[in-house]
Amino acid sequence: MTKTKTQINIARLIYDAYPSSDLLSIDPEQDCRNLQTLLAKVTSENIGDSLFRFIVIEIVEGGESDLDGAIRVMERAKEDVGAVLEALQTATANQNNKSQEVTNHETI
User: Is 4 a member of any domain?
Assistant: First the structure.
């Protein structure tokens, strides 16, 4: 007897996992039948969330539309977002330090 892999609906998985997906202008039964249907929806209409749109496009275009590829693309996006967040946090810390130095200099 051969074992078959259960086909995971990545489109529905993305929709169900995304915070507040119920606020998107997406009908999960209709628009999340598969990745190509979801891609068509997010690229042809304003769904109200550019991050969700980005995730779908990245998974389809860079993730070869399979689960392993989707994971790889999301890990890379997570690293990229983390790098930007770190730069923003560093800039804020530097700005706060400079403000503190000015305040200290003025009180002397």
Answer: no
pLDDT at 98 (0 to 100): 72
Residue 5 domain flag: no
Q: Write down the pTM of the prediction.
A: 0.79
Distance CA(79)–CA(4), nearest Å, equals 33
Domain that holds residue 99: 10-107
Q: Is 19 inside any structural domain?
A: yes
Residue 63 parent element (H or E):
none
Residue 63, classified by CB atoms within 10 Å of its CB into exposed (0-12), middle (13-18) or buried (19+), is buried
For residue 44, give the amino acid letter: S
Share of the chain above pLDDT 90, in %: 74
Give the chain's domain count.
1
Q: Rounded to 10 degrees, what is the CA torsion of 34, 57, 78, 8? A: 10
What are the pLDDT digits (tens) for 28-39?
999 999 999 999
